[in-house]
Specification:
18% strand, Rossmann fold, alpha/beta, five-stranded parallel β-sheet, 2 domains, 291 residues, four-stranded parallel β-sheet
């Protein structure tokens, strides 16, 4: 039996995740009283038939019973009962925005401000995040992307490293992305902007990619960039980092940065244990003036 506890911050997507687990064939239970979770797991283990995969949703709504979950996890560990913890998280400003859009009140906010309720919740769920096997930050994930990540982790049967990497192309003329962890400037590469037949095309096209790659400089840079990523990623994972934004910039974010970002994404996609996303922030901006 595979037992997964789905938990995390309220508003980070637990309800959506549970629906996705159902689609993956899991038997799902949400908001079961914490004291009953252990007995429920024992019943499932005694019934050696169905269901083979179980997902249990639990969060701060459990109230005063919530801290008892640590005792249950400790006993399961002593009894060698396999259990995986999926922790869904999101940035505070994203959680606030989601609550305002749905017009729901935070379980710990009461009549007070949302940010205070979120801060209190972070304190109460910290012990689960520390023990989590998988941490997914849903701040920038579309529902489709969250579904793909969950399917890859829980139905693929492959090794999964707890790191989600976003490869982001951008234009310096529009500012450096505020959430970037690593920033690479590729304005030293050949610029298609000055070619009439390429000026209004983007790095998504083969013509632009060939132009940027000409001369071999881009290829050398990419190889060095690959080497750096292969060194950095395991160390980021070792230190517990679960989100990494790699930003690649050129002047307007349409030609060189898009080409390099796509190439880096294709290379990293070969490492199936990584969560990975490619995003072109400025590719549609300033259609008449491309840089």
């Amino acid at each position: 039996m595979r037992l997964v506890i789905i938990t995390g911050m309220s508003g980070a997507g637990k309800t959506v995740a549970l629906k996705m687990f159902e689609d993956l064939g899991y038997y799902c239970v949400d908001n079961m009283p914490v004291p009953l979770m252990e007995k429920f797991a024992d019943l499932l283990r005694e019934n050696k038939g169905e269901p083979e995969h179980v997902a249990m949703g639990v969060d701060i709504r459990s109230g005063d019973e919530f801290p008892q979950l640590q005792e249950i996890l400790d006993r399961w560990k002593q009894r060698q009962i396999p259990c995986e913890i999926l922790f869904l998280d999101a940035a505070d400003d994203v959680l606030i925005k989601r609550y305002k859009e749905t017009r729901r009140s935070h379980p710990l906010a009461g009549n007070g401000r949302l940010d205070r309720g979120i801060a209190r919740e972070r304190e109460k769920v910290a012990f689960l995040k520390k023990q989590a096997d998988y941490i997914l930050d849903t701040s920038t994930l579309l529902t489709r992307e969250l579904r793909e990540e969950l399917a890859r982790i829980f139905s693929g049967g492959k090794k999964y490293e707890n790191l989600f990497v976003t490869i982001l192309s951008f234009g310096f003329k529009y500012g450096i992305p505020a959430d970037a962890d690593l920033v690479f400037d590729v304005r030293f590469l050949p610029n298609p902007y000055y070619e009439d037949d390429l000026k209004y095309k983007t790095g998504e096209t083969e013509e632009v990619q060939k132009f940027v790659m000409q001369g071999g400089t881009c290829g050398i840079f990419l190889e060095k960039l690959y080497d750096m990523m292969e060194f950095l990623i395991p160390n980021y994972i070792k230190e517990g980092k679960n989100q990494l934004v790699v930003a690649v910039g050129c002047t307007g974010g349409k030609h060189r940065s898009v080409t390099v970002a796509k190439a880096l994404y294709s290379r990293l996609a070969q490492k199936s244990e990584l969560g990975l996303k490619l995003e072109h922030r400025d590719i549609e901006k300033d259609n008449k003036r491309i840089g």
